[in-house]
Amino acid sequence: MDGKRNLLQVIGLIFTFLLLSGSVSAQHVETFRGVVLDHQTKAPLPGATITIRGTSRFYTTSSDFNGWFEIENVPVGLHDIVIELKDYKNQLLRNVEVVTGKEAFRMIELDQKVADNKKDIDIRPYKPGIARNATATVSAFSFNRENVQASDNVKEDPAQMAAELPAFRQIMDGRNDLSIRGNSPTGLVWQIDDIPVVAPNFSHEIGLSGGTYPLLPNALVGKSEVDYGPSPAGSIDALAGKFNLRFRNGNRVDRRYSLEMGSFGTAVSAEGPISRKPSSSYLVYYRNSLPSVLSGSGIEAVPGIFPDRQQAAIKVNVPTRFAGTFSIFATGGKNKVEMLQGTGAQSENFYVYGGMPNTDNYLDETLYTGGFSHKIYLKRGISSIKTTVGVSGYERTSRMEMYRSTSLRQIDAGSNNKEQELFFSSRFQHKPSADNYIVAGVSARIHQVNFSDSTLTGNVTQVYPKNYYTLLDANEKGLVQVQADAGWQHKFGNTTAVYVGVNANYFTFNQTASVEPRLSIRHEYNDKTIVSIGYGLQSQLQPMFLYFMKTKADETGTVITEGNRNLSPTRMHQLVGAIDRNFHGNLRLHAEIYFQQLMKVPVEQHVSSFSMMNYGAGFRDYSIYPLVNQGTGQNKGLELQLDKYLMHGYYFRLSGALYDSKYKASDGATRNTAFNGNYKSDLVLGTKFPFAQNGLLDINMHAIYSGGSPLPGIDDSTSVAVGHTVYDEASRYATRGSDWFRIDARVTLKWSMRWLSHELSFNLHNLTGEKILLRRFYNPESGTVDEQYQLGFVPTVLYRVYF
């Protein structure tokens, strides 16, 4: 209690200081900078006119030869900005935020017009979320760090932002594992500057990308994209979706710094020019979770969980006049976690993260991703080649210790796993005219794995010592996956664009190959309505560990060494239709209808209900029996999203999804997947407005109503009789948990002073304390089948200063 009281006193002092400082200060100013690019080729566009509207003074400038521009002495606050350029569709950016001490920067991408006799629209408002990839017509959303911060203003996790979209469903509170349209979270791939990331989040589980905290800090995120439909042909493919996060460049003119402290630790960053010519820059970042600070504040980021995490990141960008642009980037960190039963302020939350009664869990991991890229224009604005070389990997050791009695402590499971991946890609793009755009590329991913994982056999009532069963024991190098792709987009006037593409893949480990077509059509029916359709045949390799699992021939225990080596990729036919409609009053309606047919899903060779479509619904829920690519699945649904962008001081997003996700395993029965909640609705409602002379206040709430997740089905009486959890095959995923409703609230205060700005943010997770069922399990401590619930009410806080 004393810690919480002290924290509140500190917050009160900060508020008082800000209010007193603002009452005697004049309105402050900052510089607005940016770069104007072609939407397809990302080539710089000189000569664009940039104008700030709605101010008493006239602010305007033009982009230089490299597309760069800047406007000095812009008052702090929210501004509308118009970008105009001959032969390009003009653009209007609304509510661009300007605060002191932090560079107000925008990457602006304009769409080139095709010469025709139709009247062009003078200025069209920019639609937040339009895909950064110009050939993506459906199920794609672009974002930057401001979007992420608005959705999750303390943890600042892109996955938390995506969870507000109707296609995405967060599987577990406190973690960012996501199911997209009823698919397993294994189908979500993360990239950083085009490099596939083996472990993109701390505290990840083997074969899964989700975790508790992102590897790339939000402070370093530039304009990025999440793609969750039939994506255009490219160097990386995924069944459910792709996060392509991009490092932003550092400030190329001024040196800027930031300092922050909050529930997730402390962090510092620095950025600035390396030299004035030719506009090279650096950006560095360091974060420490400081568990001692967390415990002293009386507020824990995740009750019952004690992380000790350090991470760092760097980006250096060097453009040259004739040799192209060179970039070096890296991010990585170390993470130690102790999950100790009963030590948290809310000890029940220990179970949410895979804990069992009377157990302690320990994790030690190192994550890293880095690379080098070079882009050069063969003919300015027409042709370019971008080459990327990178490495990504992790090393993870873990163990689970169970107290059998006051005198007996046994390690139930332990692992020491390493994965590393070398990546190379070279992409060529060519834009011979305003109506034609061609892109092609080749890439290679070289996997190296070293897995060691074992667990105790038998059940908890047996006499000790028990025997350990080896799940993984593999050391393999040179597992090469090669991919080639090509695509062509043609515009029929300024209203219709057609894209065709093809991907080809080959995995040398087991000689599996595929060729996959892509097709999309986008038509602007009028200046307010756009209709689109997209089709794709996509595939994805299995998680690397699955190929090397030690498997049993049958339930008698006969062991086959690595019985999954010949698994082929899972494939998916995907068809999506979309409509986008703008209304008066700054309203936008977006609707999508989709159908997905999954093939070659790994299921058990003997008759059972197991399918890899459900992997990621819990911890360590893989099979120890041989798998074959004979499973299928089907997802279909409708998604609606109504956005009101900030105007007259408020904004909202109302969205909903109706969907059905089914699978068929080796027993031939059709079942719900573990992620088939059937429906989900979200309401984000907020207000953002200037106050006093230099302040900006953002208050919003996120309400979620969702169908309960299907339950795996437990045979209660048999579980109690034998002393461990026994699943009932006949009732697997036949029943579901209760529907649930949750409210999260967020408050952010920003205050500008002469040469710096303050930011104070609060998140109130699960404000009403809703009890959301996570799973049912046999509890050996009580001898009954119990229920585990997700996180209750969790407050978090963040204070940041820019200067």
TrEMBL record:
GO terms for cellular component: cell outer membrane. The keyword Secreted does not apply. Keywords: Carboxypeptidase, Cell outer membrane, Hydrolase, Membrane, Protease. The keyword S-adenosyl-L-methionine does not apply. It comes from the Bacteria. It is found in: Cell outer membrane. Pfam families: CarboxypepD_reg (PF13620). GO terms for molecular function: carboxypeptidase activity. This is Carboxypeptidase family protein. It comes from Prolixibacter denitrificans.
